[in-house]
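User: Could you write out the 3D structure of this protein bound to phosphoenolpyruvate? I've included everything you need below.
Assistant: Certainly. Input first, then the structure.
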Amino acid sequence: MNKLIVANMKMNLNKQEIDSYLKEIENKDLSNVIFCPTSIYIPYFLKKNLTVGIQNISRFINGSHTGQISIKQISSLKIKYAIIGHSETKNEIDEIHDKVKLCSEHNIIPIICIGEKEDTKLEIKEKILEEQLDIILKDIKLDKVIIAYEPVWMIGSNKNIDTFTLHHISNFLKNLVKKYKMNDIMLLYGGSVNRLNIKEILSIDSIDGVLVGNASLDVYQLLEMIEVA
Ligand code: PEP
């Protein structure tokens, strides 16, 4: 299918586990995978020439912000992507906008997470998503952007997304994003994707890939998903 997999490894795995993970994926075709490991492990992925994204960035460029990582530091490494606005970061919408703006100014491709907090009617989902994107992308020029539709209530739920809803929302989003006039926009779905449901999700034409959390920690499951994508 040639669709994209973004592996959001969150705050998981220790150094030994990362070593075995990297060993298992050696010599595999990973051209359609973006790995987002915990930041301290990024250099190990870069050393293997893998495509890497960071899980979050600071809103600030530099200075006294203990524990944060700035866009300048990221772009000084071979990191091309940044997940912005993941629900677990609890960022406010204006902060997400500022971070996407920083990406646009520093040649980093943002993977922008949007999604409703609770399951609700389709019209309400559409309204929420449009409001989020209108604020996040206001006055921002980006050549390439990745938008991840991640209904917050689906993340880590181990439930299967209803494919009728996903069809509807992904078509809606693909149409909606035309108004932001960006050249290259990819749409991902994220929320309890795994080796069993990935095929059905990726069979939806308007979905260009998936953002996978927990299932990406199991390297064998990841490899199975890559086969399908
Ligand atoms: C995520 O954290 O972005 C995510 C989609 O997680 P999971 O696949 O575990 O639901």
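Residues 122-136 form the longest helix (15 residues).
User: Perfect, thank you.
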